UniProtKB/TrEMBL annotation, chains A, B:
UniProt entry keywords in alphabetical sequence: DNA-binding, Transcription, Transcription regulation
Cross-referenced InterPro entries: ArsR-like_HTH (IPR011991), HTH_ArsR_DNA-bd_dom (IPR001845), Metal_resp_trans_reg (IPR051011), WH-like_DNA-bd_sf (IPR036388), WH_DNA-bd_sf (IPR036390)
HTH arsR-type domain location: 8-102
Domain of life of the native organism: Bacteria
Protein name as catalogued: ArsR family transcriptional regulator
Length: 114, 114
DNA sequence: GCACCATATCATTCCCCGCTGATATGTCGT
DNA sequence: ACGACATATCAGCGGGGAATGATATGGTGC
C-alpha cells in the first residue's frame, strides 16, 4: 500500500527527471530551438547547429524515441518537426524563469555549464 | 559580428541547458516537489524524500545557488521554499507534456532513467 | 560551557552520457 | 546498375556529476 504510493510517486519523479534530461543538453536544445521555426532536414540542422552529422542524427533518434520530434520522409530528405506545441511552451517557460534566475544559474558551479 | 550573434545564441542555449539540468535529477525534483506544498526544513525534506541528509544539503546548496529556492533561518532550523511561482508553472507544464509523450520517454533507452 | 540537534562541507568512488570516426543503409538521378 | 548525396548506426573514449561516509560548523537549552 505504502509502497504503491511510493512507487507511484517515484515513478512520476523519474519520468519528469528523464524528460528534463531530454532538454538538459545544449545540442538537443539547439536542435529543438532550430525546429521551433519550422521543420528542417538533417543536413539543414547540421548547418545551423554546427554539430557533426552523426551527432545530430544521434540526438534526433533520442528526441524521436522520446516523442519530442516527429519525422516525415520527403524525397531523399527526412524532415523533422516539433511534435507538440507544449514543447514550445516549456521552452518559453524556461526563458521566463531565466529572466529571474539567470544570474544565479550562471554562478552555480555545482555542475558545469558545458 | 557573426561571432557575437553566435556567442549570444550559444550563451542562451547553454543557460537553458544548465537550468534544465537543475531539474534533470530525481533528487532535486523530489525536493522541489515537496517544497511546492509549502516551506520545509532540511530534516523534514530528508524524511519526505528518503534521501540522506548530506545528499539533501548538497542539492539544496545547488538549488540555492541557482536561485530556485530561498532559505530563512527559523531558530535552529533553516526553512527552504520555492523562490518563484514560475517554477511551479514549469513543473506543471512538464506534466502536461508528459501526458503526451510519457510512453515514448519511458521507451527511450538512449539515456537511462535513474 | 556542555551535550544535543540541525545543517553544511569535503573527498572518493562509480556510472552515465555525449562526442567522434568509421561505416552501413537508403534514395535519387542518369 | 552506378555514383552521389542524405541519413543512420556503432564502438570506444573521456569527462562530469551524483551518492556516500566522515567530519565540521552552528544554534539551542540546561
Amino acid at each position: 500500500m505504502v509502497q504503491i504510493v511510493d512507487d507511484r510517486k517515484s515513478a512520476t519523479i523519474e519520468r519528469r527527471a528523464k524528460l528534463f534530461r531530454g532538454f538538459a543538453d545544449p545540442s538537443r536544445l539547439a536542435i529543438l530551438g532550430a525546429l521551433c521555426n519550422g521543420p528542417l532536414a538533417v543536413h539543414e540542422l547540421v548547418e545551423r547547429t554546427e554539430l557533426s552529422q552523426p551527432n545530430v542524427s544521434n540526438h534526433l533518434r533520442c528526441l524521436l524515441d522520446c516523442g519530442l520530434v516527429a519525422s516525415d520522409r520527403d524525397g531523399r530528405f527526412i524532415r523533422y518537426r516539433i511534435s507538440s506545441p507544449r514543447i514550445t511552451v516549456l521552452l518559453s517557460d524556461v526563458d521566463a524563469l531565466l529572466d529571474v534566475v539567470a544570474e544565479g544559474v550562471e554562478a552555480c558551479d555545482n555542475y558545469r555549464g558545458a
